[in-house]
Specification:
Belongs to the UPF0065 (bug) family. By secondary structure, the protein is of the alpha/beta class. The protein is built from ten helices and ten strands. Strands 1, 2, 3, 4, 5, 6, 7, 8, 9 and 10 form a ten-stranded mixed sheet that branches. Helix 1 runs antiparallel to helix 9. It is globular.
């Protein structure tokens, strides 16, 4: 294998949380003085078990357990086109609302760059970055593939015989690994799923031979011994004692480092009082023990940002993603 450096630096982006009160806004009648006065729906635009779902439920539990929010925070799953369906609905139907907040990550950039949706992070209200997380390539525990070289050799020999489970944005790090391993990224037989939960089922049923996603999505099955990690797409091993023996891609000669980010967004034109409220709550929750425990458990690197720092981070990340996607032939009409 001819080692090639394929490095993509991606920042953890927290998309703006939007809250809408009943009948148009829970605090709109008095300029947000009593905001929030009703429930705020927290949306994970993917299936249960996905990274967005894990993040949404961890965020709600942290906000409630640490007594930061007293009003109800119901969580809903709205899968569809790796977040693009819910994003479009938010843009078209929830403009100016203050009682919805939604989870997001790289797909809000990569889907637009690939030409799969006309909307992106600039079309909603951005609140802040929550954390970064690393990608991991996994296989069933009894897989014949013992390392990345084994997997890439099989893909080069017969791509169709090695289906790889991946959500939309997760194709990027695997594509970079394939290119670094002298395989054609366009030849990889990707099977699309809406999150890690579906990928785990596919792996255990034999529907796919390998999968790639954030560490948190496979953590439970890795610790239970049902899945085996081939590589962490990072420059150093995971800090978790139970997962620290999983080798990095770089240690296997694949110089690829890609960090995903996850965060929160709200509808376009979210009222200023709601923006300030949620920026304040998100900043506070990231310092709490409950949230830090979730971060340690799921191998999240807490990195809260908002305002101009976040804007620069998002813009730089978007540029890097576009460059990386073009390099492996995954950029579309927006590329």
């Amino acid at each position: 294998m001819n080692t090639k450096r394929m490095t993509a630096a991606f920042a953890a982006v927290t998309l703006g949380v939007a809250l809408t009160g009943c009948s148009g806004g829970s605090g709109s009648a008095n300029g947000g003085k009593n905001y929030p006065s009703g429930p705020t729906t927290v949306t994970a635009p993917a299936d249960p078990g996905s990274g967005w779902d894990t993040t949404a439920r961890a965020l709600v539990k942290s906000l409630k357990q640490e007594d930061l929010v007293s009003t109800p925070l119901p969580v809903q799953n709205r899968p569809g086109a790796t977040g693009s369906v819910w994003l479009a609905q938010t843009v078209h139907k929830r403009k100016g609302k203050d009682n919805y907040i939604s989870m997001t990550s790289l797909p809000i950039m990569s889907n637009q760059i690939r030409g799969r949706t006309e909307y992106g992070y600039k079309d909603v209200t951005m609140l802040g970055v929550l954390y970064e997380t690393h990608y991991i390539v996994v296989v069933p525990a009894d897989s014949p593939y013992k390392n990345l070289d084994d997997l890439m050799k099989a893909i080069k020999k017969n791509p169709k015989s090695v289906p790889v489970g991946a959500a939309g944005d997760d194709r990027l790090p695997f594509g970079l690994l394939a290119k670094a391993g002298d395989a054609d990224p366009k030849s990889v037989n990707f099977i699309n799923y809406e999150g890690g939960g579906d990928e785990i089922t596919a792996l255990l049923n034999g529907d796919v031979k390998a999968a790639v996603a954030g560490v948190s999505e496979f953590r439970g099955q890795l610790e239970a011994g049902k899945l085996r990690g081939l590589a962490v797409v990072a420059d150093k091993p995971l800090s978790s004692k139970k997962l620290s023996d999983i080798p990095t891609a770089t240690s296997q000669g694949y110089d690829v480092t890609v960090a995903n980010w996850r965060g929160v967004y709200g509808p376009p034109d979210m009222p200023d009082y709601a923006v300030k409220y949620w920026q304040k709550k998100l900043k506070k929750v990231e310092t709490t023990k409950t949230w830090k425990d979730f971060a340690e458990k799921n191998q999240w690197d807490i990195n809260y940002m908002t305002g101009q720092k976040m804007k620069k981070y998002l813009d730089t990340t978007n540029t890097n993603i576009k460059t990386a996607l073009k390099s492996i032939g995954q950029a579309g009409s927006e590329g």
